[in-house]
UniProtKB/TrEMBL annotation:
Record's protein name: Kynureninase
Modified residues (N6-(pyridoxal phosphate)lysine): 302
Residues engaged in binding pyridoxal 5'-phosphate: 163-164, 191-194, 247, 276, 279, 301, 331, 359
GO biological process: 'de novo' NAD+ biosynthetic process from L-tryptophan; anthranilate metabolic process; L-kynurenine catabolic process; L-tryptophan catabolic process to kynurenine; quinolinate biosynthetic process
Length: 482
């Protein structure tokens, strides 16, 4: 039985390396440093077609992060519930392109969880302060790498709760409406849970969300929000806006917002500016402290690969530490040295640490700490560099191999074509065919992704996805039976 690698071969006889992506308008040396320019230069150097399987293999052979793939468990085709294992070798690796929804299992998580279970088994209650990873300090080992990924300073980051719970807790402190300033600005098609939280906070304070919400939308016939349109709203309505809250990377379109510019513009108008970092953290470099972001919330189960329902966290800028704002307290917000003294009054810890309420999930912290080791070893800048190439490579193959006049259907990108305005995700709008039918057929071929209406969301995650994964995916997409 052929493997999926052998079953899909892409013809390259009539594809020219001179084909450029629509966003490539620059010339000379600058063009050669863009992701598309790098891909073209390598194809010319190796004397292979950019659309050939050989090119994908060469990219993988020279990938400085190729060894990281072995740190993850890649599901086999036989393991997937909807894959047709009779068409391919059931033991061959599937094509997993759904890290924007749930990251794959890092192998070292199994080891770390085993250590925690052994400590629990052997030490019982003594494991709180003894053993290889004391339970009472389970949240602290996560912080050093998270600080680097978030661009944070000491005491600005802490893990706790889940994303939406943390958003509510942050709004208790940072959404402080007045008669003149009470509105919340956010993007159209924000993640539904974010919108639920924003609207419920508005109602809690006595405001009608239909009046107190300002949603910025893409322009007519465009697919993502322009930064200048956000800035224009802030300039015109900023004095009525209490909170600006956007997604660092938009979950539906994959757009990477200009967080620095939007934060500066919002604060210039007197607004508090917060960010949902669920799709940004571990995906793109962040510099929250330098950007002066007031607060952020995040989860850990997408690009951080800490497992479904993994623990969330918060960022609070150090310039907020001495502010007297309302918040809800719990015993884990005490300093570690006095936490177990059971004082009547809280001995609040510094910064983000003091926002904690309950004992965090020990096994979730254990999984997150282990999963973060891959980021510590790789570095977010190297991860981002590979991510740009992977995503550009996928876009190029789709443009040249599928979006042709003779094709049965076309793919339009909701995601910006500019690599600097997107992360790892591409959102593919299927035109001329049933997206669900295509999605179902891809699943039968052993591809994991997701579909929302007529849009298929795909993410090539640089820690565990290869260029061959991208090649195989586009080849299947091209030859799909519809």
């Amino acid at each position: 039985m052929p493997s999926i690698n052998d079953a899909v071969i892409l013809s390259t006889t009539d594809i020219s390396l001179s084909v450029k992506m629509p966003n490539q308008h620059c010339n000379g040396d600058h063009q050669s440093t863009t992701p598309q320019g790098i891909l073209e230069r390598q194809a010319e150097k190796w004397q292979v077609s950019l659309t050939s399987k050989a090119f994908a293999h060469k990219l993988d052979e020279t990938d400085p992060l190729k060894h990281m793939r072995d740190e993850f468990v890649i599901p086999t085709i036989g393991d997937l519930p909807n894959a047709d294992a009779t068409r391919f070798d059931s033991n061959s690796e599937s094509i997993y392109l759904c890290g924007h929804s749930l990251g794959l299992l890092p192998k070292r998580v199994r080891t770390a969880v085993g250590v925690w279970l052994e400590d629990w088994a052997k030490l019982g209650v003594h494991g709180h302060v003894h053993g290889r990873s004391p339970f009472a300090k389970c949240d602290y080992p996560c912080i050093p790498t998270l600080k680097k990924l978030l661009g944070a300073q000491d005491h600005e980051v802490m893990v706790m709760n889940q994303l939406t719970s943390n958003l509510h807790l942050m709004m208790i402190s940072f959404y402080r409406p007045t008669k003149e300033r009470f509105k919340i600005l956010y993007e159209e098609r924000a993640f539904p849970s974010d919108e639920y939280a924003l609207h419920s906070q508005l109602r809690f304070h006595g405001y009608d969300p239909n009046i107190a919400s300002i949603k910025v939308s893409p322009r007519k016939n465009e697919t993502y929000v322009r930064t200048e349109d956000i800035l224009d709203i802030l300039e015109k309505q900023g004095q009525s806006i209490a909170l600006v809250f956007f997604s660092g990377v938009q979950y539906y379109t994959g757009q990477l917002f200009d967080m620095k510019t939007i934060t500066r513009a919002g604060q210039k108008q007197g607004c508090v500016v917060g960010w949902d970092l669920a799709h940004a953290l571990g995906n793109v470099p962040l510099h929250l402290h330098d950007w002066n972001v007031d607060f952020g919330v995040f989860c850990s189960y997408k690009y951080l690969n800490a497992g479904a329902g993994g623990i969330g966290g918060i960022f609070v800028h150090s310039n907020q530490f001495d502010k007297d704002y309302p918040r809800f307290d719990g015993w884990w917000g005490n300093r570690y040295d006095t936490r177990f003294e059971m004082r009547t009054d809280i001995d609040r810890d510094i910064g983000a640490d003091g926002f904690r309420m309950s004992n965090p999930s020990i096994h979730q912290c254990t999984a997150l700490t282990a999963s973060l080791e891959a980021f510590e070893e790789s570095g977010i800048e190297k991860i981002r560099a590979k991510s740009k190439l992977l995503t550009q490579y996928m876009q190029y193959l789709i443009e040249t191999e599928i979006n042709q006049p003779s094709s049965k259907y076309q793919i339009k990108f909701l995601t910006p074509s500019d690599p600097e305005q997107r992360g790892a995700q591409l959102s593919l709008h299927i035109v001329g065919a049933d997206a669900k039918q295509i999605f179902d057929e891809l699943e039968r071929c052993g591809v994991s992704l997701d579909v929302r209406g007529d849009v298929i969301r795909v993410a090539a995650v640089p820690l565990y996805n290869s260029f061959l994964d991208v090649y195989r995916f586009v080849t299947l997409l091209k030859n799909i039976r519809i």
